Amino acid sequence: MDFRHQIASTDAVAGVAADALLVVTHGEAVDASLDPAIASVLKDALAQGDFQFKAGRTLYVHRPAGLKAARLVVAAAANASVKAFKSAVGSGLAQLKGGGAKHVAVLIGNAGEVTEQHAEAATAAAADAVYQYRRTKPSANSAPALAKLTLLCGKPEARSVQRGLLRGAAVAAGAELARELANLPGNHCTPTYLGEQAKKLGKGHGLKVEVLERKDLEKLGMGSFLAVSQGSVQPPKFIVARYDGAARSQAPIVLVGKGITFDTGGISIKPSAEMDEMKYDMGGAASVFGTLRAVAELKPKLNLVCLIPTCENMPGGRAIKPGDVVTSMSGQTIEILNTDAKGRLILCDALTYAERFKPAVVVDVATLTGACVIALGHHNSGLFTADDALADEMLAASRASLDPLWRMPLDDEYDEVLKSKFADMANVGPRAGGAITAAMFLKRFTGKYRWAHVDIAGTAWKSGAAKGATGRPVALLTHFVLSQAG
Ligand code: BES
Ligand code: MN
Q1: CB distance 369 to ligand 1 below 6 Å
Q2: 338 CB less than 6 Å from ligand 1?
Q3: In what helix (H) or strand (E) does residue 476 lie, and over which residues does it extend?
């Protein structure tokens, strides 16, 4: 999609050449700064009861008198926040969906500053509105789609608006990549496919990409990761992708994404209902791919390393069994009490591998636990870190990107449940606090650097009518990475 800005003072709004003008407004009355043609339609609609200043309400006018644009949509926002603006842009674009408008100009209908954050929010809302999964269903919706969005602003705002649009476009492209990968069925999106996609991304953006094979993983001693993969005919892959934007001497940020391309649960097999959705158990990997794409496009002065352990979790004659003990790359042994808790088994070896980069910080992202969904629902991703300063940086990135994140506890006391009689640790504890137990397990492998874990089991995917991948938390991760450029 094409994102632009256009400088337009109040008296120029009527002449804006776009297929549709989308005016976002909030408050109790028609803003005095509004173009008179729009103001008069709005006043009339209010008087007739056809519009209200209530979040989610929209008004559509075809061939509005006095405006060059052939369509006018007014969308009410709950308040003056950027979050409310984004949601109103979403409602406004939904109103235009399926119609003839290809180019939409967006106007903030209340006098007030148009910021960088508004610009980024508009791109996110637009990208969301136009996304359509087509890969294995090419017939899906071929109607003319929105192709261009112009954000109207004042002259002094133009520079920061343009900056927001650029960042927003990069994040939107990254989120789209993450959605495509996570939506892709497990028989298409295999570990081998992800390896190929990494190479392709690397070629397109000048990144260094290496895909480690089973024999390499054996040499490295990744006994935990290999154990998970052994039940599948699909060979495991370990993807190492680097973006070098600063001197080699600068410690990199390392992102680790869980890449289980399908999770049956293994011998601890999952119930059949909704098992299809476990194709998104590589949502962490998908979001790391998306973030890498966004970062490679924005070219900040920093170094980024992305690590993706990827395999399938299948039952079978060669599969791991409850009670098996494996030796991780760190040398620590693990008793696998439940083969369904295997994300942590592939991540732990990736976290040990991360040590070799002497990272400034490591963040892992994973659709790790159903318990996190129970704790936080589908709105907030779960943040786990013992590092308060890092937590603050992550939460700040969350606020800036409108990608919600909630900090969870990680007290040492929670480690108790991982004790095993047969190994250094078990891979599961009791049901209570399961998302924390999983994080405590990972913590045992991260002593050598600053580390945070993000559980996206509830946020990377939507079930029900809007079933599919969300592209989260690409916006959060991109903002976090950019914030580390100093
Ligand atoms: N992929 C799941 C986590 C998950 C569950 C993601 C629901 C999205 C929605 C993970 O591999 C898993 O199976 N975790 C188990 C762990 C348990 C056995 C300790 C879980 O959460 O049930
Ligand atoms: Mn599982």
Answers
A1: yes
A2: yes
A3: helix 474-483
